[in-house]
Amino acid sequence: MLAPDGTRRPCPDLDRWVADVTPEQLRLMHRDMIATRRIDREGVALQRQGELGLWAPAEGQEGVQIGTAHALRRDDFAFISYREHGVAYARGAQPGDFVSIWRAEEHSSYDPYAIGVSNPQIIIGAQTLHAVGYAMGIQRDALHAAPGTRADQAAVSYFGDGASSQGDVHEAMVFAASFGAPVVFVCSNNQWAISEPVALQSRTPIVRRAAGYGMAARRIDGNDPFVCLAAMREALQRARTGGGPSLIEAVTYRIGPHTTSDDPTRYRSEAEVDAWRRRDPIARLEAYLRSMGELSDAQAQDAAALGERVATEMRAACLSMVTKAPLAIFDHVYAQPHSGIAREREQYRAYLRGFDDAE
Ligand SMILES: Cc1ncc(C[n+]2csc(CCOP(=O)(O)OP(=O)(O)O)c2C)c(N)n1
């Protein structure tokens, strides 16, 4: 829909899904993308300064994250991976939420039910199963819904090209298709699974796998936030109206390293990264808005200033975090007492006794 220079191109398949989008909605998307990038850069800086254990950069993937997240309804639920900072931000995560996990202070900071976003998943692909389970729950709730109540929520699972090789993802798609579950699978194909190129893992475009499950699918430009919004709206409407699951393969690129522990110069060329830098999703939406006369310098400055404020709050929250006693890590794993966790806590307590005052 938007060429890399921001030119609007007709897209007969999807145009109707964004026909009612206002310039204000696009400006909000632009603002969220800028904040996401700023959060991301602050995360990298904090890790490099020794304040975070790890960070998984999202730079370059703001288009798919914000474009699809803006299509969601408040009562939908997103199951994200460790890289979807933008989805969490767009749904209401607070600046401090982006650091507590990566500083190893909390298993989760925000209340997943409050913003409709799961804890970031580290186990590759597991969140596809969680999303399908949640979507099947929506179907069952609908059977008992009181008349007049809404029972057309949808679940969405974000995962990477590498995750698509996991057995979990296959099982999730089989169940989703068999049960017609209201779920959207968003595969952010950022070309690399750490050092493995997508071409090695998927001999055909990932989107084609959907046909084998009997699922609707689209392959879209993940660096075009506008088409991401349109394709997600289409897939969500399918989910809400009994049309079952969909797969969106959003073709994008990870500009940064896999995580702050990775050195991408060992497996990819600068020329490749440069080519993708020229397809920047933020610059693209900005160019489109400006070409329409819908983004003034003052509005762009406001968006940048908001990004700075979010980053400043994130850093302040990080630096003021009080480190808990090591055993506190077991406190909120389950709501109820759990014998397995109790056993692990005791084992860890015994281990800590080997250190002075560590408990
Ligand atoms: C089940 C499992 N296997 C292996 C890993 C180690 N691991 C962490 S990230 C990653 C690559 C994931 O690539 P992809 O799904 O393309 O997502 P991206 O990191 O590119 O966003 C791997 C193999 C893991 N976390 N979980």
Tell me the CATH superfamily of the largest domain: Thiamin diphosphate (ThDP)-binding fold, Pyr/PP domains
Give me the number of helical elements.
14
Per DSSP, what share of the residues sits in E-state strands of 2 or more residues?
A: 5-15%
Low-confidence segments, given as residue ranges, are none
Mean pLDDT: 96
Strand order of the largest sheet: 1-2-3-7-6
Largest sheet: 5 strands, parallel
Number of domains: 2
CATH names the topology of the largest domain as: Rossmann fold
Structural class: alpha/beta
The Rg value, from CA coordinates, equals: 21 Å
Number of strands: 7
Distance between the termini: 57 Å
Quaternary class: single chain
Order of helices and strands: HHEHHHHEHEEEHHEHEHHHH
DSSP helix fraction: 40-55%
Question: What's the topology here?
Answer:
Elements: H1 23-48, H2 62-69, E1 77-79, H3 85-91, H4 97-100, H5 112-115, H6 126-144, E2 155-160, H7 167-179, E3 183-189, E4 192-193, E5 196-197, H8 198-201, H9 209-213, E6 216-221, H10 225-240, E7 246-251, H11 270-277, H12 281-291, H13 297-319, H14 339-352
Parallel strand pairs: 1-2, 2-3, 3-7, 6-7
Antiparallel strand pairs: 4-5
Helix pairs in contact: 1-2, 1-3, 1-12, 1-13, 2-3, 2-10, 6-7
Thiamine diphosphate is lined by residues 83, 122-124, 159-163, 190, 192-194, 254, 258.
Written overview of the protein:
This protein is an alpha/beta fold. Helices cover 45% and strands 9% of the residues. The chain folds into two domains: 15-323, 3-Layer(aba) Sandwich (Rossmann fold), CATH 3.40.50; 324-359. The protein has helices spanning 23-48, 62-69, 85-91, 97-100, 112-115, 126-144, 167-179, 198-201, 209-213, 225-240, 270-277, 281-291, 297-319, 339-352; strands at residues 77-79, 155-160, 183-189, 192-193, 196-197, 216-221, 246-251. The protein has a five-stranded parallel β-sheet, with helices on both faces. The chain has a two-stranded antiparallel sheet with strand order 4-5. Helix 2 (62-69) runs parallel beside helix 3 (85-91). The longest helix has 26 residues, at 23-48. Thiamine diphosphate is lined by residues 83, 122-124, 159-163, 190, 192-194, 254, 258.
